[in-house]
């Protein structure tokens, strides 16, 4: 018991030291309760990953960053979680984050606790484990920063169209990374290749029904929302096709039959 407490204390210390990764929106420190909930969610996710048999080396993880019940969805943001061989096999999260208030984004690598620090709507998580061959290819890709950057778009939009390289959202970067790992006939090193492969393999984006008034409001008042990459006929009829957690999960389960999903409910942290 004492050993597990020491490990947990060290894990919390690492998370606290880098709690600001990718959060330029506010300079105020997180409230203690928010910090504790985030650490509990990260710890529960780590426990789940380590309890699975066989234990994965790479998985996908999704969080509830905002309320999407209007669109009948639960999870809003997806990332890769993997054992980083450069850090003694510790679990690390890799994902695309939007720079607050702008149309810019960048790739971040951080701990599991930090993944839940971005003002969550709820603290449960979804873990999606692909087949072992896909995990192995993802591990190689995640260990190559240049390869990850090749699939990163320059401009961010929350509702980026899946088959255009004009913008990119966070879930789209994960999906295009999956395409690079799952493609066996083509070596995918650029976004157009990934999108063409996704088209050919039948990827279906989520259809968000967003009316004209809401579209105009989003475009005028939020730098990280754009609709001009969407087909005109679909856009004008209020149909916005974009990459969501739901669509990524559905695609991977259909294309990679060995994939499995697990829901993680955060529980109070054990006492130190």
TrEMBL record:
Residues 1-21 form the signal peptide. It holds the Pfam family DUF2145. Keywords: Signal. InterPro entries: UCP028477. It comes from the Bacteria. This is Membrane protein. It comes from Jeongeupia chitinilytica.
